[in-house]
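Example record for the data management plan.
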Amino acid sequence: MSIDNPLRRVDRSLATSADPPSLPRAPRRWTRLHAALIVGFLVLLPLPLAAAFGWFGLNPVQAERTAPVGSLAHELLSGFPDNALTVEIAAAPGASPPPASVSLLWNRMNETLQKGSIRFVSERIALPSAAWTTDALFSVEQSVRQYWPGLGQMALFYLCVPGSYAVDPGVLGLAFRGSSIAVFADTIATTAGGGDPAPITSTVLIHEFGHELGLVGLVGNAPNEDPSHPGHSTDPSDVMYYAVETTAGLGGLLGGAAPPTQFDAADLSDLQTVRNTPIALELIPPIVLAVCWVGALIALVAFWRAGRKARTLAASLTA
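Corresponding structural encoding:
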């Protein structure tokens, strides 16, 4: 049996008590590089998103491609931030709208829009007579359109083509994007039956313009919307009546009378509803921008607080 030496035990305890105390480990800190990378990422993130989706006028063609009918109604109706409107009419030979129809469209625009100026730009384009799909129409639009909606500029585009609509050959006109309208000149001429196409063309130009304004019920609620024909009015004397869009409907509506070209009182009331109704496509870009920049600000504050805490801890350990 071994006997423990008490002196050795004392010496061991003294040696142990003399060891320096272990220092608490300082928390891991952000470096300036970390902060710069995170803040820079959040600040710049809206740029590629804007380029991909066409926000803030960075990619107007892509923005138009994804803009449903009525989604630009606020930009059309309001004088802020774009107080001017450019109406571009691209037409194949023989498909140009009559001057009287363009003049009447200008009148309706001045009656409904809060723009300081509205100008019309016309151009001739070579197109074959065809059965047009919306994709084919937009492909032509991409190649010939000069004015697109963007920051400080609002534009509306009419593409007047020979031929007909592939989905329904009786369709006279079609609003197919947020600021894009097709007019099927041959179908209008057939409906006119050899007579003056101006009255029917006027109705088509104004009717499709009304859809771009969010009528009827495309934006907000419209008491005068026809449940059997969504997006259209219940009033046969209203330019937004469903029958004015097709050869068959317009033929049954007219009965020898001129087609309607006037927005009725219910339409004008609907436009006030449109002005007061938020449109999701307008809200997404500023929300994303705000989230990213607020996130960048939070990251800066967190970096500053972490640095301050680290400096305080370092000072307390060296005191």
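Summary line stored alongside the record: Residues 86 and 119 are 5 Å apart (CA to CA).
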